[in-house]
C-alpha cells in the first residue's frame, strides 16, 4: 500500500499541531492539579508522574526485500499496586517514549476509576503497519513479545489492542508467548480472537462504553440522542462501531474522518455505505470524497463531537472554534489541558477519555476473568456487566465533580489517584 500525497500533507499538518503537545506533560499537569485539589502531598505527584518501569527494546525484522529493519518498541508499566498492569499496544509511526508513558498513566487512572484489579501499562512500536506485509507484521509482533517477555505475563502485565493493532496481532503475540513459556496461557493477552479464548463483545466494547456514557449525559441534559447531530474523528475500531450504533439509534452523524481527511454532510452521512467501504485500518475507500481536512471537520457545527483517533487534536489553537455542546473523548488524550479550560469557559462539557473510553479495558478484564476461570460468557452477559460498570463509574465521577466543584476530568483523576495511592500506601510504597 502506498501513501498518497494527500495523506502526506495531512500527516504533516497533524505533526505540526502535535509538535506543541507532549502527552506526558499533559498527563502530569492534570495529575498535579487533581493531587492539589485532594490536598495530597507533593510526594504523591513525584511518585505517580512517571511509570514505575519503562522498557525500550530493539526488534530486528527480516523484511520482504531481504534487508533487516530494526524497529523501536516500548512498554511502560505505570503502577502495579492494585494488581498486574494492563494496557494496549500501539503500532504507529509517531509513537514516542513520552506518549507511551502518558498512556500508561492514563491506564492507571482508568483502572482506578472503574475499580479493576489492575494498574496501568501501555506499549508501542514505531512502525507504519499500513505499509508492511502480513508476514512482516507477524515477525514484528512476535519479536516484540520476545523482547518484553521478561516483564509481561498473565499475572504481571497483560497487553491488548490499541491503534493499528487488532485480534490477529494479539493471536500472534499469544502464540509467541506460549512458545516461550511452554504452556497455554490465554490470560496473557486480551482482545484476541474468540477461537483462542477471546471474549464476546471485546471488539465493540470501547464504542459501547462511549455510547453508554453519552446516553447518561443525554439523560442528564434531557436531550434525546435521536435529536443529536454528531461528528466523529477516526473511523477505526472505536469510531466506526460508534457511528454504527448512533446511526441505528437515529442520531444524525454529519461528519466522520480517517487519516486521509474528513467527510461531511449536514443532512447526515450514509453510515452503512461508509462501514462497507472501510478497510482494516479504518480507512474509507478512496472513491469517497473527503471534502475537508481533519482539523476543519473538528470546527464544523454539531451537538456532539467525538474525537476517536489520535491525541492532541483539540488545542488552544482551535478550542475557540469548536462549535458543539459536548465533547466525548473516545481517543486517548485528544484535548490538551489549555484547550479543556477554553472549552469549559465556553460552557462546552468535556467527558474525559479515562472515563469515556474505559469500556475497552473493562471488557478486557472480563476476558481475563473468563480465561482464568475457563468458563465463557454470552455477549448479553458481557454487555450487561459493561453497562453496569461504566454507569457506576460515571455516577462516581459525576458525584465527585459536584462535591469538589471541579470539571469531570479532574474528578476522574481524583477517583483514579485515590485508588492507586490507597494501595500504594497500604503496601508501604508511599507514606504521609
Ligand atoms: N481499541 C480500543 O479498544 C481502544 C482504543 N482507544 C483509543 O481510541 C483511539 C482509536 O483507536 P482505534 O479505533 O482502536 O484505532 P484504529 O487503528 O482502529 O483506528 C484509528 C482511526 O484513526 C484514523 N487516524 C489515524 N491517524 C489519524 C490522524 N492523524 N488524524 C485523523 N485520523 C487519524 C485512522 O484512519 C482510523 O480511522 C486511539 O486513541 C486509542 O488509543 C481507547 C480505548 C480502547
Ligand atoms: O483493553 C485493554 O486492556 C486496554 C485498552 C487500552 O489500551 C486503552 O484503554 O487505552
General description of the model:
This protein is of the alpha/beta class and 432 residues long. Among the domains are: 137 residues, 3-Layer(aba) Sandwich (Rossmann fold); 153 residues, Rossmann fold. Helices cover 47% and strands 16% of the residues. The protein contains 15 helices and 11 strands. Strands 8-7-6-9-10-11 form a 6-stranded mixed sheet. Strands 1-2-4-3-5 form a 5-stranded mixed sheet. Helix 2 packs antiparallel against helix 3, helix 2 runs parallel beside helix 4 and helix 2 packs across helix 15. The radius of gyration is 20 Å and the shape is globular. The N and C termini lie far apart (56 Å). The N terminus is likely disordered.
Task: Jot down its keywords.
432 residues; alpha/beta; Rossmann fold; six-stranded mixed sheet; five-stranded mixed sheet; 15 helices; 16% strand; binds 1,4-dihydronicotinamide adenine dinucleotide
Gist?
The chain is an alpha/beta fold and 432 residues long. Among the domains are: 50-186, 3-Layer(aba) Sandwich (Rossmann fold), CATH 3.40.50.10860; 204-356, NAD(P)-binding Rossmann-like Domain (Rossmann fold), CATH 3.40.50.720.
Amino acid at each position: 500500500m502506498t501513501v498518497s500525497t494527500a495523506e502526506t500533507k495531512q500527516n504533516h499538518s497533524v505533526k505540526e499541531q502535535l509538535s506543541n503537545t507532549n502527552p506526558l506533560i499533559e498527563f502530569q499537569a492534570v495529575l498535579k492539579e487533581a493531587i492539589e485539589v485532594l490536598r495530597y502531598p507533593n510526594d504523591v505527584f513525584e511518585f505517580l508522574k512517571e511509570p514505575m518501569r519503562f522498557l525500550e527494546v530493539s526488534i530486528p525484522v527480516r523484511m520482504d526485500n531481504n534487508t533487516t529493519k530494526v524497529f523501536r518498541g516500548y512498554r511502560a508499566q505505570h503502577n502495579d499496586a492494585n494488581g498486574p498492569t494492563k494496557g494496549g499496544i500501539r503500532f504507529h509511526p509517531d509513537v514516542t517514549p513520552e506518549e507511551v508513558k502518558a498512556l500508561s498513566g492514563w491506564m492507571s487512572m482508568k483502572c482506578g476509576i472503574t475499580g479493576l484489579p489492575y494498574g496501568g501499562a501501555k506499549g508501542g512500536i514505531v512502525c507504519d503497519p499500513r505499509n508492511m506485509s502480513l508476514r512482516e507484521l507477524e515477525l514484528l509482533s512476535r519479536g516484540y513479545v520476545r523482547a518484553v517477555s521478561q516483564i509481561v505475563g498473565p499475572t504481571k502485565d497483560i497487553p491488548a489492542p490499541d491503534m493499528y493493532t487488532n485480534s490477529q496481532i494479539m493471536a500472534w503475540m499469544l502464540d509467541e508467548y506460549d512458545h516461550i513459556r511452554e504452556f497455554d496461557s490465554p490470560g496473557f493477552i486480551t482482545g484476541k480472537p474468540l477461537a483462542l479464548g477471546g471474549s464476546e463483545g471485546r471488539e465493540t466494547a470501547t464504542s459501547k462504553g462511549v455510547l453508554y456514557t453519552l446516553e447518561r449525559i443525554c439523560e442528564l441534559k434531557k436531550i434525546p440522542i435521536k435529536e443529536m447531530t454528531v461528528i466523529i474523528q477516526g473511523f477505526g475500531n472505536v469510531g466506526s462501531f460508534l457511528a454504527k450504533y448512533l446511526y441505528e439509534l437515529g442520531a444524525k452523524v454529519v461528519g466522520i474522518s480517517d487519516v486521509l481527511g474528513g467527510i461531511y454532510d449536514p443532512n447526515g452521512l450514509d453510515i452503512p455505505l461508509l462501514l462497507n467501504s472501510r478497510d482494516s485500518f479504518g480507512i474509507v475507500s478512496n472513491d469517497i470524497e473527503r471534502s475537508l481536512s481533519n482539523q476543519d471537520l473538528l470546527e464544523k457545527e454539531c451537538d456532539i463531537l467525538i474525537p476517536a483517533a489520535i491525541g492532541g487534536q483539540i488545542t488552544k489553537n482551535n478550542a475557540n472554534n469548536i462549535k458543539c455542546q459536548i465533547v466525548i473523548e473516545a481517543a486517548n488524550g485528544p484535548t490538551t489541558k489549555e484547550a479543556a479550560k477554553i472549552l469549559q469557559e465556553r460552557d462546552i462539557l468535556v467527558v474525559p477519555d479515562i472515563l469515556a473510553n474505559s469500556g475497552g479495558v473493562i471488557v478486557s478484564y472480563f476476558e481475563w476473568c473468563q480465561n482464568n476461570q475457563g468458563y465463557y460468557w454470552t455477549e448479553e452477559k458481557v454487555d450487561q456487566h459493561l453497562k453496569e460498570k461504566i454507569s457506576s463509574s460515571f455516577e462516581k465521577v459525576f458525584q465527585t465533580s459536584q462535591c469538589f466543584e471541579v470539571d469531570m476530568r479532574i474528578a476522574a483523576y481524583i477517583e483514579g489517584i485515590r485508588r492507586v495511592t490507597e494501595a500504594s500506601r497500604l503496601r508501604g510504597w508511599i507514606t504521609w
